[in-house]
Amino acid sequence: MKRQILFFALALAAMTAVAQDLNQNEWHFTTNADGTATVTNYEHPTKVWINGSETWGTTTSDCYTGDLEIPSVTPEGLTVTGIGKECFRDCKSLTSIKIPNTIKIIGDAAFQSCHLLKEITIPGSVERMERCAIWSCDGIETVTIEDSPVTLVMASGYEMFRTLPALKYIYQGRNMVSEDNSWKYVFRSMSGPVETIEQGALVTQIAAGDFEDNKSLKTVRLSPNLTVIPKDAFSGCEALEEVEGGAVTSIGESAFNYCYALRATPDLSHCKEILQSAFANCKSIERLVIPASVDTLGYGVFFNTEAPTEVVIEDADRPLKVGSSGMFRSANSIKKAYFGRNAESTEYLQYAIIENNPSVEEITFAGSCSYLRGSEFAGCTSLKSVRLGRNMKNIASRAFGWSSGQLENLTTLICEATTPPECEDGAFDAIDKEKCTLYVPAESIDLYKEANEWKKFFSIESGISATQANTNRVTATYTLGGQRTTAAKRGLVIQRMSDGTTRKVLVNP
Fold first, then answer.
1. Euclidean distance between the first and final Cα of the chain, in Å?
2. What local confidence, expressed as pLDDT, does residue 469 receive?
3. Which residues of 209-245 are buried (b: 16+ CB within 10 A; e: fewer)?
4. How far is it, in rounded angstroms, from Cα 284 to Cα 305?
5. Which of helix, strand or coil describes residue 122?
6. Which residues pair with 497 in a beta bridge?
7. pLDDT higher at 306 or 39
8. Averaged pLDDT for residues 56-79
9. What does residue 10 show for φ and ψ, rounded to 5 degrees?
10. What's the CA gap between 264 and 333, in Å, rounded?
11. Helix, strand, coil abundance in the chain, percent, nearest 5
């Protein structure tokens, strides 16, 4: 009997010692060649099943538990610069982890399958993350990549984040690149319900396709120092509604293609080029504004946008180069269009930009617009009003359409030019000139009544007041801090006008 009692006492003592060892979370390190240290996993006793019976054995799984803060210095005084391969792998009782700013490398599968972790912060000191470092951490909702001027190198890109099914928010505080061409994208096709991605000011670049095909992503806050949104960057982000910030000068091919929910373009006030299909299939954008800064629109930039009711190309003293004719042809919701400069097609033939748009009702060619090409308004069967600016010089044959009476709804044509623009024969053949009234400057009525093609209008009147002649209009609104806003704002705001000037205005005082 005494022997049995002694046996059970020893067994209890052994189990108590094991429990104490598990609860103490004693740190284990290896020494690196440079005299620094790496935290590692370790073998420890645990209950295991052998031949159908539960018994004590050893394992490296679940060797660290609870809420942990990795020490920055070992008991021997060595700086801890690494987290070793599989260091915390399968630590199913690990509930939180704080990584010190001394860590430079996070090893292969370092935190793989740590299912109780809710968030993880990668310090600015980390220079490299090996494969699967946070693979299959089912509970992680927030990933924070802290600000740093040092680019974070990832052995393999988006495999790191695509196995985090609970991930909702990402803060990217610095540039990130992948070494593996097979996994070259950083945040592509994440499996979690990621709704928001926010970038810090030290992010200056993203790679092509980096955020592609994230189906739940709704909000992106770009770095104020990000100037290029590359090819396919957010393509296929079907739920994306809002893109804020940035100082974008270039938007690459298909950058926002198939972003069905996008309500407005990013701030384009610094943008110089918008390349092919950049906003194709963006079916929720209601207002398209091309700032004076933009020099080039690629082929099909706004193909199949469907929703916009207004198009504005702001005033500029140089032509806008467009990659296709009928740039807005597929946007059959457009009611108003304002063009503040000439558009030159990069195609061999110089086609019109608004032709065959059956929904547009009001069109203005003002600013530095100086000519209308043939077929400029062909197929615009709902057109009711056209205004031509004071710099209009030439109107091509059949500019208003190819067939007589095609623009039967056009009842108002305003031309602000004091000298009647030169017209080729047939320029106004598609207009019912008995039904449409021509309004011109008062001092120029007699000139228009004698000018070729203009004289065919039955009613030529002086109907341009100082207010009517001023086609300069608000094209963008900003807060005093310089943030563009699409919503109505009370108080003092900055408005940019179609001629490129700005003004401060008190709204709804």
1. 93
2. 45
3. bbbbbbebbbebbbbeebbbbbbbbbbbbebbbebeb
4. 7
5. strand
6. 474
7. 39
8. 86
9. -65, -40
10. 15
11. 10, 30, 65
Residue in the structure block whose two tokens are 């770095």: 223
3-class DSSP state of 475 = strand
Nearest to 80, CA basis, from 101, 64, 60: 101
Q: Residue 168's pLDDT is what?
A: 96
pLDDT in tens, 135-194: 999 999 999 999 999 999 999 877 778 889 999 999 999 999 999 877 788 899 888 899
Span 185-233, pLDDT tens digits: 889 988 889 999 999 999 999 999 999 999 999 999 999 999 999 999 9
Q: For residue 5, is pLDDT > 50?
A: no
Of 144, 183, 142, 145, nearest to 164 by C-alpha is: 142
As given in the structure block, the two tokens for residue 454 are 């203009």
Question: DSSP letters of 171-229?
Answer: EE-S-EEES-GGG--SSTT-SS---EEEE-TT-----TTTTTT-TT--EEEE-TT--EE
For position 467, what pLDDT does the model report?
A: 40
Q: Which residues of 381-420 are buried (b: 16+ CB within 10 A; e: fewer)?
A: bbbbbbbbbbbbeebbbbbbbeeeebbeebeebbbbbeeb
The sign of the torsion formed by the CA atoms of 64, 66, 70, 71 equals negative
The structure tokens listed for 111 are 């935190």
For residues 454 and 444, give the distance between their C-alpha atoms in angstroms, rounded to a whole number. Answer: 12
Q: Per-residue pLDDT for 105 more than 50?
A: yes
Q: CA dihedral in degrees (468, 397, 334, 441; nearest 10)?
A: 0
Average pLDDT, the chain: 85
Torsion angle of the four alpha carbons 321, 324, 326, 327, in this order, in degrees rounded to the nearest 10: -60
Query: Measuring CA to CA, which residue among 283, 360, 276 is closest to residue 324?
Result: 276
CB 203, CB 173: distance < 8 Å: yes
Joined together, the tokens standing for residue 117 give: 């972790």
Break the chain into its structural domains and give their ranges: 1-194, 207-302, 309-471, 474-507
**Alpha carbon 133 to chain centroid, angstroms:** 27
Share of the chain above pLDDT 90, in %: 64
Residue 459's Cβ-count burial label (10 Å; 0-12, 13-18, 19+) is: exposed
pTM for the model stands at 0.82
Superfamily of segment(s) 309-471: Ribonuclease Inhibitor (3.80.10.10)
What's residue 502's pLDDT?
66
CA gap 104, 38 in Å, rounded: 10
Give me the residue label for tokens 């987290």: 83
Cβ neighbours of residue 470 closer than 8 Å, sequence gap 6 or more: none
Task: Report whether 418 contacts 391 (CB < 8 A).
Answer: no
